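User: Can you fold this complex?
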Amino acid sequence: MNPDRILSVNGLTKYFGQGTGEGQVLKDIDLAITSSEMTALLGPSGSGKSTLLNILGTLMRATAGSHEMLGVDLMHASAAQRTEFRSKHLGFVFQFHHLLPDLSAVENVMMPAACAAGRESRTMRDRASELLDAVGLADRREFRPAAMSGGQRQRVAVARSLMNSPALVLADEPTGNLDRQAADHVMELLRSINETMGTSFLISTHDEHIAQQCQRRVELLDGRIIRS
Amino acid sequence: MNPYAVKLAIRHLLSHPGQTALLMAGVALGVGVFIFMSALIGGLANLLTLRTVGSIPHVVLEMPDRDPAILSSGQDVQAVLQKDLSRRNQIAIWQPAMPIIETTAGVTAVSPQIRGSAFVERGQAVAPVGVIGVMQDKLSVIADIRGALIEGSSNLPPDGIVIGSRLASDLGLRVGQVVRLNSDRGRSRSFRIGGIFSLGIASADRQAVYMNFTAARALFDLPSGISRIEVKVEPATDAAPIAQRLGRSTGLKATAWTEDNSQLFEGLDAQARTGTIIKAFSLITIIVGIASAMLLSIVRRQSEIGIMRAMGASRSLVISIFVLEGTLIGFIGAIVGAALAWLALLPLPPVTEISSGGLPIDRYQGDFLLAIALTTLASMLASILPARNAARIDPVEAIGA
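Assistant: Here's the predicted assembly.
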């Protein structure tokens, strides 16, 4: 077994619905992700990319198979254990930034840590400020999402995903809502974080241009991995 | 209390000042109704009690009934209990009881009286009256005769009487005129009308005749005893326990005003129940208002809740945020409503000084603290169900991922 492996799933299957309406979305998925790896998850719409990311992010349970990350059996963990694991070891970037509109940029970045601790602290604020510096938004710390551009909001979302120093960041079409220039800027940022911080990324996309910027590509079609 | 939940709840309320102010205004209105109803019901009860007890004795002490005891009864014996009417009902030795009564806690005034029935004659006109023989300095301690005088003076010389305004009007009497009184003891005597009063109580104004204590003794043939002792107490609502104490300490039959006015208390109870129902409806309105506002807010903020859950927020954190928001709206709305209600009630005169047609509102009975406490509690309860719904939101569906 590869000692750098941080996540592995085997025979992962996911069904939606019940009875005759039941549909198999993921079929016998085997996948491993190693530390500091930047992987592109490619596939057309409906191929199961988002479902796979949701399962890997513990937001959804698989119907069958094994799911292990950092030595923890997430397939059989309780909901509370999965929530705690998610807050400590996983980061998320979505197609839409999903920042909380009532909080400033720095407060949004702090949010995952504050949710876990039940309070904000000076250390959290310092860490969030560093992350905003790293994504080039040092001068936007106290701005609310409504006062920022789409690209800036997505960079705040990237900083937020790194707040708890996760082992893996799951990014679902992170540039899907951005123009080419802003998309390149975000990808450049992810690559730089991957190189400097050693954070692993699994980036779902159907954009070949984005996939080419990753070290590895996994292709999904009709719920099956056709190339890894 | 989770400090982060407190921060997020307060931040959300402050970020939407219009919506927050509107919700708090709704709560304040409900609290205002609650306080207004409490003050009105309390004030009305005070006014009715004040009007009822203002001119009557709070405790009456009389000689106990001397009914004979049944010595034996058998299967073939039917016992018939008859009231002992062979002797005159009077308190023969009353002076020793006076200091005991006067020093009893709660007693504010004591008036020994000689009472009897009589007819007032003037020419061919005759009217039945109730004569009250009182000591000069005790004339106004039970009913404020001096304050109710509309003509003449309240002095009671041996040949003087003070009569009610309706009696004066019925018989065409004026101050200074002489009338003849025929007592139920067969004695007859002439008196000069010294004053005319109007208490605003029809029975007293038509039938009460006040006279000198000594003159009443002669008119009713009562050389040493008295008919009864009337007592005023403070507060009037404590009359029943004070009457019990007086009965025990004097050996006399003590009757509190509350025993003869049970219908008033039934009326006050019914009024209080009506007020409680109205207050309950105002609380229900607050609960429904807050619950529906919270439910709408949760629908609008689904993606926010979803992202927080995805970022590791526990269900209890989400519940805390929404319950806190509802509770804060209720608490602050209640404080504002109570403050506004206090200011609105401030210019109203006290119940004791209310003019005819005015609202008898007693702001000190507004139940301000109870209104704030109940509203805060109701708001918290109203938020629990929506908050639990929020905590059950599936982050995947909410985020639309």
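Strands of chain A lie at 5-16, 23-34, 38-42, 64-69, 72-73, 90-93, 168-172, 200-205, 216-221, 224-227. Chain A has a mean pLDDT of 88.
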